[in-house]
Amino acid sequence: MPQAAIEYARSHRDAFLEDYKTLLSIPSVSTLPENEGDVRRTAEWLADALRRLGMTRVELMPASVHPVVYAEYRADSVKPVLLIYGHYDVQPVDPLDEWRSDPFKPEVRGENLYARGASDMKGSMVALLKAIESLKAAGGIPLNLKFLLEGEEEIGSPSLPGFIELHRDLLRADAVLNCDGSIYGPDAPSITYGLRGLAYFEVEVLGPKQDLHSGVFGGSVHNPAQVLCELIAGMHDAEGRVTLPGFYDRVRPLSDEERAVLAQVPHSDESWKAMAGVKVLWGEKGLSTIERIGARPTLEVNGIISGFTGAGAKTVLPAKALAKISMRLVADQDPAAIHGQLCAYMREHAPETVTWDARELSHGHGALMRRDSAPMRAAIKALEETFGVKPFFKREGGSVPVVSMMQQSLGLDSIMLGFALPDDGIHGPNEKQHLPTFFKGIEGYIRFLLNLAEAVVPADSSH
Amino acid sequence: MPQAAIEYARSHRDAFLEDYKTLLSIPSVSTLPENEGDVRRTAEWLADALRRLGMTRVELMPASVHPVVYAEYRADSVKPVLLIYGHYDVQPVDPLDEWRSDPFKPEVRGENLYARGASDMKGSMVALLKAIESLKAAGGIPLNLKFLLEGEEEIGSPSLPGFIELHRDLLRADAVLNCDGSIYGPDAPSITYGLRGLAYFEVEVLGPKQDLHSGVFGGSVHNPAQVLCELIAGMHDAEGRVTLPGFYDRVRPLSDEERAVLAQVPHSDESWKAMAGVKVLWGEKGLSTIERIGARPTLEVNGIISGFTGAGAKTVLPAKALAKISMRLVADQDPAAIHGQLCAYMREHAPETVTWDARELSHGHGALMRRDSAPMRAAIKALEETFGVKPFFKREGGSVPVVSMMQQSLGLDSIMLGFALPDDGIHGPNEKQHLPTFFKGIEGYIRFLLNLAEAVVPADSSH
Hints:
Two copies of one chain form a homodimer.
Chain A: H1 2-11, H2 13-24, H3 36-52, E1 57-61, E2 68-73, E3 81-87, E4 107-109, E5 112-114, H4 118-137, E6 144-150, H5 160-166, E7 175-178, E8 190-195, E9 197-206, E10 212-213, H6 214-217, H7 224-233, H8 256-263, H9 269-276, H10 289-295, E11 298-307, E12 316-317, E13 320-329, H11 335-349, E14 355-364, E15 367-368, H12 374-387, E16 392-396, H13 401-410, E17 414-416, E18 432-434, H14 435-455
Parallel strand pairs in A: 3-6, 3-7, 7-17, 8-16
Antiparallel strand pairs in A: 1-2, 2-6, 4-5, 5-18, 8-15, 9-13, 9-14, 10-12, 11-13
Helix pairs in contact in A: 1-4, 1-14, 2-4, 4-14, 5-13, 12-14
């Protein structure tokens, strides 16, 4: 049966690619109000695709802004239930002028397909749908499925915690497949067992009541842009550590066993530099790159704006300055506590010459998963069968907040199985998906679903 | 004769105001390419007005971007020649949403007229033209005049040094009136004898080749926004002093006599705070506010931008960060040397994880003028006659680079006589001109021209 499904997949690559491009051409940017209709069209496109696959219950369920696409497939009650998570929204495209092709007109160049969302994460979502189509064509879908595809991931999944809590019975399952993942390289499969959380803030410093003439007032009024720079500068010490009070208190230390596991990641600082386009790496002293990005929390300035930023010279002393600042968190840091630490830092360091505000925009917990469960073994086997080499374990720097939500609400670890690559340029210009990896991904999903159907014994056959 | 001219001025206030509003309604923003035609229309409007006043030679002379309006009036060769400087361009209007009325639809609210350029400096320019009209109607213009009105002041007067050097003979004069000035308060006339210079830069920090995902790369790649903040934070020490190497080396120290003169400025920190809209003032320790803004150099962040600055959350690690940074300079600082100091600071402090660039956008020297010259006495007398109180001397925080150019090329001090007020909000939203001060300004100019015609003996009657 795997072979028949895999042959179907191989002989339908052109058609699969066309469907993939169609999905990418809808600009489902969840953060921009002007794209609200496009986000909904994307949800409807997916619902139609799921109906064509024979799902027995397909519906758009309301959320804060953009709907959840829910679907079910009942194969056999003695087979396990797999809950599948994905998101169909994408990041904004700015800076647009740095894209070599239109972000919503997918273009193949070499082995890659370029478009916003190609890698994060329409590629893996389409790969999974095509794996299911291949299994159906080759004899049948081997287990029970539930789909939860959200449209608000890139705005911090504001509805998801409530949605999952509210629908705990509906979402009951034996395992979770989260397609929002990546492998280490085209020939280096990997399984992510750790994810960082996120706490995202807007920090604003307010000075004079309006922009002032910098000559008339310069030297007598504290410049809010300067103050914000000083506050941001103080958020790291000379060792690259974050200085917010208590920031590291709840960080789970790395065990020797886990450091050994992470040391097996075939990471090269040289290729990491090439991928980022920098000459020298940076970060907390005394830790490897893999440890810093996977197992340690960080603080980033995602954006900053103040005063005059057009072409030419304008001599203002700005009235205010704003920064977007986010922290990547690791288990067991609590995002709500981070907001308190940020405010404590601001209270301690902001001068009396200005006022300030630090607003939380979104947050999510980090997560660590068991490396020895039956679903995890099914995934490891599927990757080894597909790539011909054993996958290694890694922790990832990015955030997939739904993973910790599902741990907390449903008591289920997620299997992070997706086919993005680290150099796909997600969230930036010229995002791409490596097409050979996309096609291997379809085969990896076929094998995972078959392995899981065999390996997992349903906990409860009543769902 | 003063009385007849002043009565004419008083009886024509409505008509004067209408002409003033017409001039303000042309958006002569010199820095924006889309306003190039408007800047030219403004020059033509002024040329027509000068022709109507009977100037004998009126022409638009080419400059880098926007023309110089040049005009002459020959009254009598035994009378002195006054060279008049003004600029007819204005600053951009952003942030537009903070204006209570359209910046190019002048609106009177209370005693003030609100429009971009109302105070800086179409108001004083119109006041002078109306003073000349009043003198002409009341018997004749009492001295020889030359006009140099530029359209590039708000972009740093790129053509002016060359223009003045090239036209040294044409511009020969016995005194210079620079209308780009202000008085201390509606009932507190003052004369500015010191101006700060300006050196304006764009500082850019470049990190990864493109925006990166802050989760994937955060903690391994140095964030250019964070680096730029750290560099800016280091540009001031805890005493509020600028840390660029050698920055204070050529600053002319304040003498006890001059500190005593400046102590007579009826300055109140309380009203300065109210004007700026801040609760606490700031600046270099150990100096009065008047000393800090007039006699000491400063460094300001005029703008900063990096990464994602729209609504919502985007988790990028930005590829680059840019700041507009300008220094207000005092005699005898050299703007070219400041560029060297900035680059030396950057070389010393920028980490090896990034590259950087510091480009000069514009610069101008500071200036100090004699307080005891005949033209200065003519101005002091005119203000005292108009306001009923003796004016005091002050040094100003802003920059009027043409003043030092005329000192250097023509050997002439400028009389800074203009009728802006410090709370006019120039360069910011809701710029305004206090109308009672505008009308007093017309009378002040009438008296200044008459006093000057009497007091100054022409150095050379051949021009």
